[in-house]
Design goal:
By secondary structure, the chain is α+β, with helices and mostly antiparallel strands.
Amino acid sequence: MAHAWRCSGLRWSAEDGPVLVWDGGRRSALTWGKRVAFGVAEGGVRTCVGARGHACPVRAAVPGRSTGARCEECARLDRAHSVAADTIADDPRPYHVYLAWFGPGMLKVGITARERGSARLLEQGAVCFSWLGVGPLMAARRAEELLRAALGVPDRIPYAEKRAVRSALPGGEAERAAEITEVHGRAVALAAWPESLARLPLRVVDHVGVFGLEDVPGAVGEVSELAAGWAVGGELVAAAGPDLHLATERGVVVIDTRLMAGWGLVPAAGGGELTVPVRRFKGVPGVQDGLF
């Protein structure tokens, strides 16, 4: 029986690009044109990945469609001390406030520790972004709330919505930057801007080239789940956030690498054809929704 690997997720850096990380520390660099092929071990069960570096004490089974790959208790523990969950108020590090754009009409505000640079934006799949301000955590949080209340800018956009519009992005950087440019000007002019948060000038950073989305076919759908005995295979043409864009016999299909966590994964037999269900994006005809 082939040795089974367990995926810890997709990691991003501005210098190294996307890298798949495996339990035990092994890393697989991802480059455009690379063949990505794996199968889910026959008879395998997807188990909870635990929380904050600790294994799940009961090795609970988790659903194949879950992107969290954690049981309810481990998910609660993982978010118990989290900036994202707003459970930390005393972090002394400075934080950036940013505007991130994912496609037409999809603009959000968020915060990230300044020491992380743009890694958070790459992890979210932001097509482009600009910093808004920098300062203490609670001032950054107040700025987030200010933009939600005063300008109607959300702080969350579901991944499914982000990937569905990625195939029809405007072709030019100026077009992609237009919404950020307009909202940035309105945001830094707000009278209620927190005093301890320094305003930062507009500087839009475009990730289309980093993600490999230039001059590649648009994705037609996404893998909806994994299960024992199923396989994924294709040529890597792009990656954004947790998503890999694979050229397959069905067209370009997106797999959220978070679906891989918790499974025992093995080398795909026969070159790794796509034998998983694919949910087609709205408006894209002719893509198979299931195995049959």
